[in-house]
Specification:
- By secondary structure, the protein is mainly α.
- It contains 13 helices and five strands.
- The protein folds into three domains: about 90 residues; about 100 residues, no CATH class; about 60 residues.
- The strands form two sheets. The protein has a three-stranded antiparallel beta sheet.
- The protein is globular and about 70 Å long.
Length: about 325
Amino acid sequence: MKLISAARVKTDARETIKLAHLLAANLIPAVWVPPLPVRELRALVIHRKRLVQQRIQARNRLQGVLERHNLQATEGKAFARGARDWWCSLPLAMAEQLRVRQDLALLEALDPLEAPVETHLGQLSVTQPWNQQVLFLLHLPGLGMVCAMTILAAIGDISRFPTSKQLVGYAGLGARIHASGQVQRSGGITKEGPSRLRTVMVEAAWVAVEHHPYWKGQFERLSSRIGRQKAIVAIAHKLLVAIWHVLTRERADVHADVQAIARKLLRWTARCGTVAGKRRSQVALLRQYLQQLGPAQAVQEIHYSVRVYRLAVMHRDEEAP
């Protein structure tokens, strides 16, 4: 296809015949067309990312104003609603004051827009076809609800990747390899495929190496040899391989921390997995999720915040003070 597009003599009639010959020889691979739920989820994830980027850009422009004029930020949060009067009182030129006011107005307009998008993502995460896959992703370290939905939107159907190596190649986290004759070279990652999947995997890897002892040990071993930046990409690679295994086999990760999993699932169910105010249904749903993951037999009670959730027995009150 590259040769066809770069041909010196190129007309539609000639290229149609070439494509017909390739198709007859079965040399044109099929393309997976995402079903409607995947397309809608991708559009929602991209919309949220666009809102976040616009907010970050506005904040960076305001921060640049302070740096250009060597001004000290106000105490507390510089971008809070109460700091608007402080921004407007800065000794700036009229044109720059106008830009500052408009960036502040943009922030005020963007802040309330992100929460409804995340709420809708949470509602989707507990419905078919996502709830079972989200459950297996949430028990991995570094993955929250929004992160899990972003990964599922990029992957789509996990069964279209027969091996974890193909999923890593699709995400662009595999190393470049050039091997021809006596020449063999390997470089950085390919960066092919959806960039949002690579971004969210690296972000999840940073959280995992900070809070999980297994991934922290892996990161320290790699960073001492290849540096922190390359090491975190390698951790993102390994974490994506773990995602392929748990989604394909529908089995919990061997390095999973049951208490951490239960607390994360409690947050998920409290946010979008059960009816507000019904603690019994929340605990029953937590028990069901842990049984689906497998490690439910290894835990009798969950310590979360100031409460203890008992999972071993069924009583009228399933939550102890």
